[in-house]
Amino acid sequence: MILLDFTLHQGAFTLDVHERLESRVTALFGHSGAGKTTVLDSIAGLRTPSSGTIAVGERVLFASDRRVNVPVYERHVGYVTQDVALFPHMNTRHNVLYGRRRGERLALESVAAMLEIDALLDRRVSQLSGGERQRVALARALMSAPEVLLLDEPLAAVDLELRRRILPYLERVRDELGVPIIYVTHDRAEVHAFADHVIRLDRGRVVASGLASETLESLIPNP
Amino acid sequence: MELWRITYFTVLTAAGATVLMLPPGLLLAWLLARREFRIRVVLDTIVSLPLVMPPVATGLILLLLCSPRSAIGRLLEAAGLEIVFTWKAVVLAMTVMGLPLFVRTARAGIEQVDRRYEAVAATLGATPLRVFFTITLPLAFPAVLAGAVLGFARALGEFGATIMIAGSIPGVTRTLAVAIYSYTETGRDREAALIVGVSASIAFAALWLSNRLAARVATPTRKERASGTPAGLHG
């Protein structure tokens, strides 16, 4: 269970989310500027809401009324940002192992095998292709044994062909690891293919929320 | 030979001063580049003050601070630390005069480091200290190195503050810069000219070495940018 019940003011922009997520994959859907990335940043602790509560499972990450604000590095979120942001001064292996939590069940070998990056581990980051970067960033996030996985438009910057190749890896993560995923996209087809639950944001407000399979058409009118 | 002793002494004290600059300098550079706090502007100004004040004035302030009549001076005396007119005074003057150059250069380098990397490292569980040493510092390394070389070069040439607090005692506090002045004063122009040559050679070697080092440290941030971000676009 993920509880997102908070308000965040930023200049003239106000983000207002009051949702309880029980699904494996929740898609945050909406135009750019709707506040999708801000939601992920708030969960990760990179932005601080003005008020409200954010909790992942039993752990309260932020609660304004109790003055709880867990620092970013103790939140245990795996965050793959839109630009991937692999550390340029480390090779692939050191990137993947950067956030490894000791004593966790995930071994490098299994994650590398699942995402098929074994052969890339000794390469420099600058030698990786776009699709490879996405998988390495995903592996890096998974190795930190996150309690929630935040993916910000992981397929936005790749072409259709590559999209078809990366999606199965995301599905593997979803099906094999059981980590809840919050997934930002503005692509209807991706919501269809990947998400259980969809939240539609518009100018900082939730305008629709429901099971992706049942309500996608009614939620998201054709453009 | 006296020339070599002066050279050795100057390089050693300047190197010591550079090492002393690093911990407070990195902390200040990071604070000024990455933190918002109330006295930021004040701190920024104080750090840069030795750059714009006459070095002799800085030297006088240091002298007054370290004199046995001041509170700090009494503390130093109680601790058995004698500073004024010793080699320690030379190092102190060099450190204070070199620090602003180091801080400004390192700060500019830290500001260039993309905050996304620091944010992602934090989400991966890295404490602020670990983020600094594994992400910020390595990515800002060329600038930090350049700052250290500038600080070192400034320390090598330090004159005004040194003469105030350390004097020009042969074999005790006489550095290359001070020696040039002292020799010229006493009509030993040839020796002064020789020292000018030595100073120039050391400065040249330091700059050359730092350029080599900076070139060897790959600057992948730039490389990555050149190959086109967002990274996902090519593939």
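Residues 2-34 of chain B form the longest helix (33 residues).
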